[in-house]
Amino acid sequence: MSAQAGFLLNEIFAAVFAAALYPFRGFHPGAGLTAVSALSGAALLLVFKKTSNQGRIAEIRDRIRGLLLEIRIFRHDLGVVFRAQRGILLQTLVYMRYSLSPLAFIAPPVAVILIHLTPYYGYRPLMPGETAVISMKVDAGAALTAADVKLTVPDGLRVDAPFFRASDMGEIAWRLTVEAPGRYEVGISVGGAVLAKEVVAGAGVMKVSPVRRRGGFWSAFAGGGEPPLPPDGPVESVRIAYGAREDAFFGWKMHWVVPFFLLTLISGFGLRGLFRVEI
Amino acid sequence: MPTRFFSSVIRKPQAMKAVSRSFLSALLCAALLFTLNSCRKAPPPAAEGKKVIVLGFDGLDPGLLLRFTARGEMPAFRELMEGSAALELGTSLPPQSPVAWANFITGMNPGGHGVFDFIHRKPGEYVPYLSTSEAYPAERTVSVGRWVLPLSRGGVRLLRKGKAFWNVLEENGVHATVFRVPSNFPPEESGARTFSGMGTPDLRGTYGSFTYYTDDASIDAQEITGGEVVFVNAAGGSLEAAITGPQNTFLKGSPAAEAPFTVYMDRDHGTAKIVVQDDELLLKAGDWSRWVRVEFELMPFVEVTGIVRFYLQEMEPKFRLYVSPVSINPADAALPLTTPPGYSKELYRRFGFFTTLGMPEDTKALDHGIFSEKDYDRQSGLYIAEMRKILDFELSRLKSGFLFFYFSESDLGQHMFWSAMDENHPMFERRPDEYRDYIYGIYRALDGVAGRVLKCMDDEDTLIVMSDHGFTPFYRAFNLNTWLVENGYMKLLDESRRGEDEFLVNVDWSGTRAYALGFNALYVNTIGREGRGIVMDGEGKDRLVKELRYALLRVVDPATGRNPVAGVYVGKEVYRGPYVEDAPDLVVGYDIGYRASWETALGQAPEELFYDNEQRWSGDHCVDPNVVPGIVLSNRRIAAERHDLRDISATVLGEFGIEPPENVEGTSIFRGD
Lengths: 279, 673
Description:
Oligomer: heterodimer
Largest interface: A-B, 34 and 35 residues
Largest sheet of chain B: 8 strands, mixed
Helix content of chain B: 25-40%
Number of helices of chain A: 6
Radius of gyration of chain A: 25 Å
Radius of gyration of chain B: 27 Å
Distance between the termini of chain B: 94 Å
Number of strands of chain A: 9
Shape of chain B: globular
Distance between the termini of chain A: 36 Å
Strand order of the largest sheet of chain B: 2-34-25-1-24-9-10-23
Largest sheet of chain A: 6 strands, antiparallel
Strand content of chain A: 15-25%
Order of helices and strands of chain A: HHHHEEEEEEEEHEH
Shape of chain A: elongated
Helix content of chain A: 40-55%
Number of helices of chain B: 16
C-alpha cells in the first residue's frame, strides 16, 4: 500500500479523534484525556466481549472463586488447600489463554488510539516568546548549501539565528521564535521545490505534529497527520523540537499514557456489569 | 468440591459498604473543608478592600538616590520623596542582607531571630555554616550493593527564627503575597503565597555555580571560584560534555549526578546546535538560550530536574560556552520554594521557566573574567524581564491585601559596578567607559518599577519603597585575622601556610584568644563554649572584649593614614532576645572605603594586613550600619523621626488595623500622622 493510502487512513481516524476531543478544547487537557480514556475503555470492552469466549471465561472465573472459597472454608485441611491452590494456578493459566486471544483484536484499536492521542497529549504547542529548532534531514549525498535552501515563515513566527548545517549528519536547522499563538505553515524551498511544515503555538490542547517525513504506508499511517514528503526529493524529514507535555493529567507529572491506561482499565471494569461482559 | 456451587456468591453487600464508606468519607471531607473555609477569619475593617504594597529594592542607597534624582529624571522616586518627606531607613547590625531582611520579616533584632552574619560557626568545632538554612541528610540509610537507600527523610530547614509578619496578616484574615524575600528559604510555613529569595540554592546546593566549557588553556581553572571550568576539545565538528548536577546520595561516595549534552558546530555559519536530553537549541556566538530543563537520574525511576541557560560566548578562535547554575525547576521543585507548594508551578504554567536561584546574576563569573560587563548586563536583563512579568501578574490580581516584591539587581549591580563610576576606586581605570552610568541605569529602571506600581494604587492604598541597606565603596580590604595574629590574639599552627588554609584550619587554639569568621563577626575563644577555648567567661572575657574594641578603633591603615573601623559593638550589649547567646562577641563596623577581606570571612590570616581591592566586586555594605542606611519612601507622609527596618512589619500590620505581636520591636513609620 502506498504512503498516500496510509495518509488517507490517518486522516480519517484523525477526523474521528478531532470530533471526539472537540467538546473539550476549552478545558484542561486532563478533561479530554479522561473522556477519551473512558470511551476507549467502553469500546475496548465491547471488542473484548465480541472476540472472547464469554461463557468459558465466566466458567473459569466461577471455578477460581469456588477454589478460593474452598481454601477459606477448609483452611485447616492442608491437602485440600494445596489441591485448591494447584487448581487456581491451572485455572488462571486457562483464563489467561482465553483472555490473550482477544488481545489480538484489541491491540490494533489501542495502537490507533495511541497514534492519534499522541499529537494532542504527547507534546505541548510552542508558547509565544518561545524558541524552537526546526531541522531538516537530507539524504547523505545531498550537499546542500545555504544558497540551496531557504526557510520562509509567516507573520507570527520569526527566524532569528543563522542557518546551521552539519554535513556529516545530513542536517540543516534554523531557530524559530514564536511571536503570536496560531497554527502556521512554514515553507522550506529546497532546490526549487517548496516543502511545508506545520508549526503550532498556543495554550491548551492543540494537535501537534513534530515530524513530517518521507516514507511508506506505515510511516504515513502512524504519522502526526501531515502529508508524507515527496519520495523522490532529497529531504528525509522536517522536524520541530516541541517540548513534551508533562501536565496532561491535571498537573500530575507523568507520561500521558499512564493515566490513559489506568482510566481505560477503570472504565472497562466499571462498565463490565452494564455491558454484561465477563473479564 | 462442587465449585459451581459458589459461583453465585457475589460480594455485593461488601462492595456496597465500601462505596458507602467512600461516599461518606468524601462527604465528611467536603463538610470539613466547608467548615474550615467558613472559619477563616474575616479581615479587620481597616483592611476591607485595602492594598498595601512593599517594594524591596535591595541595597538602594539614599545618597545615590538623592544624587541621581537631582539629575531631573526618575519621576516616581521624586514623587515618593516629596510625598513621604523621608529618605533614610536605619539598617541592621551588621548591615548584611540576611540579617537586615530577617529584621524586616520579624520586626526583631538579630537576638530575636538568630541571624547575625552570612556565616555562623559551630563553636564546638569552629566549623562555619551558612546562617539562614541548613540541609540535613537522612538519618538512617541502608546500603544495597553500590546503592545507599534512605530509611528516613532528609531535607532542608530554615534557621531564621521568629514569626514572619505576613503570617500575622494571614491569621487576621488579610491575604498576603511575598515574592522572593531573602532569609526565607525554605519558606516559613504559611497560609500566604510566598516564594523564597536570596538564600535559595541551586541544585548543587551552592548559591550558584556556573560551568564554563572552553578550549582556552590560558585560563587558570584553579583560580576560579563560584564555578567550574571544563576544558574540552572543540577541534572537531562536535563535542560531548556534561552538566554537573546535585550530589547523588543514593550512590556510595555521593558522586555528582550528570546530564550529558552534545554540541554540534557549524563553523561556516558561526552556529552551534546543542542537544540536551530531549531538547535542542540553536545558538550563534553571543546568544543566550532559553531555559532548558535537565534531568539528573539518581537511580532507576528516581530523578531530579533543574533548569539552565546556555550562553555561547564564542566559537572561534576559542570555544567558550557558559552554562548557568542549575536552578531548581519551578515546575517540579526538588526543594521547597513556595507556600503553598503549587505556587511555583502556577507561575511556571503562566510564564514558562524562570530562575529560582536566590542570587541569579552571576557575580563570580564577572569577577573572574568569565563574563564581560556586557555579558553580566545581558544575564541581569533576562532575569529582570522575568521578574517584571511576575510583578505585573501579581499586581493584576491584587484586589486587596498585602504584596511584597523584591529586586536584587540594585544590590548585585552596585557590588559589581561601583568601581565603574567611582574615580577613587583602584579599579576605575580598568572598567569600560560605557558602564560609568550602569548603576544610574539600575536606579532608573527601578524608578520605572515604582512608577508602574504607583499607577495601581488607589487613594486608600499604601505603597512603601524600601531597601535593607545602602552602599559604600570597597577600596581596601582589611585582614582582621592577620591583625589578630600580629597583635598576639591569634596563634597559627604553621606560619608558612598563612593564607592557604580556609576555615581556621591553621589556627593553634591553645594560643588563640579571639578569631574572626564572617564579614563582621569577631569571637572570643571562650572556655566552655568553644571546643578548645582558653578565655574564661566572665571578667576575663569582658576585659578582653574591651581591649579588642579599644585596639580596633585605633588601627591605622599605613597607606592612607585612616582608621578602617568606624565602630565596634559588643554583642551582648547591642542584641536582646532568646538567641543572644549565639551572637558574636564583637561586631566590627568598617568605615567608608573599607571592608573585611574575603579571607577574613573564610577564617584565613594572610601575610598582609591591608590590600587594594582589585576585583570587580567593588561596592559593599558589610560595614558600620551608620555608614549605609537604607531608604524608605511612601505615597503617604512618613513621621519625622528615625526609623529602621524593624518598623516596616509594624507599619504593614498597622495599615490593616492589626496590633503587632508583643515581640515586634518596631512601630509604624506613619505614627504621628
